[in-house]
Amino acid sequence: MGKAPENLEEDYTSPESYYDTWESRIGYRFVNGGYRHFGFYDVGTYWPFPLESAMKRMENHLYESLNLPPGAKVLDVGCGVGQVALHMAHKGLRVEGIDITKNHVRWTQQRIKAEGMQDMVSAKWGDFHDLSGMADESFDGVYAVETLLHASDPSKVMGELYRVMKPGGHSVFHVYDHIDINKPPPGCPAHFMDDVTRVNERSGMPGLQMFARGVLKQVMEEQGFEDIEIRDLSENIRPNMRYFYLLAYIPYLIICFLGLSAYFVNTEGAVIGYQALRYGLWRFLVITARKPSTAAGASRRRAG
Predict the structure, then answer these.
(1) What percent of the chain stands above pLDDT 90?
(2) Beta strands per DSSP E along 130-214
(3) What mean pLDDT is predicted for residues 76-104?
(4) How far apart are CA 207 and CA 177, in angstroms?
(5) Residue 302 reports pLDDT greater than 50
(6) I need a surface site. Which of 8, 129, 191, 289 has the fewest CB within 10 A?
(7) Which contacts (CB < 8 Å, 24+ apart) does range 101-106 have?
(8) Is residue 125 helix, strand or coil?
(9) Percent of the chain whose pLDDT exceeds 70
(10) Angle 247-194-189 (CA atoms, 0-180°, nearest 5)?
């Protein structure tokens, strides 16, 4: 794993198409409280509610991981509908958000205006594979909350994020990785790996398909990031995943019986995703890293 999937455009739904389906809109709004990310729970927690408190804990974890002073300028890579960007802004950071889904950008802009935060937050359409409209070394930090899984060329994305960060800048990425999906662990049916791949394709997640363990860290090192630290928070999101699974399981059986799973990718993903977590196939990670603050660090990147 780690290489771009073949027939990328043919096999993978575009992120915009995925997020604009009625199932995604309804599911994120009413099942996950409007959030596009997981919540943070103490290990061993079973009850997932209230969801909003868990979401805010995850956003606080992100803020603390960024470790930037008030007034720092940060790039939100895939800002979704703006909750994270606004949370960072209320903490004192100046946030510029980009998203490839036009509806997300429009809704984020509406939220910014409604909260009177225009001086602290902005949002615009953007593709993290090409940040040519942004100047070199223009951000004190960058973060991506569960959006790198949509990357079709992670090396290009990391190169762009590295370029727009100032020397010494901080980065935080919430991302998933997996074991070699060609080698299912004991107890995992062989066909289940095909189910996982199908969910990745229908959810527009070629990045996740590529992120075997160690791949993203290697990509980041090749682009010049240093002080890379990886924390496994899989157990901290388990209550959220279990909630999705329990809510989706009966509908999943019905849509499978009717042959309609292609139209209910989030329902399918909730069941298969939790089962995959139980099998130990994937992990939820927080990766922190820094851009070198010295010319020597930058020269090492050019030499590589």
Answers:
(1) 88
(2) 139-145, 165-178
(3) 97
(4) 9
(5) no
(6) 191
(7) 101/15, 101/16, 101/19, 101/20, 102/16, 103/19, 103/20, 104/19, 104/79, 104/80, 105/79
(8) strand
(9) 93
(10) 80
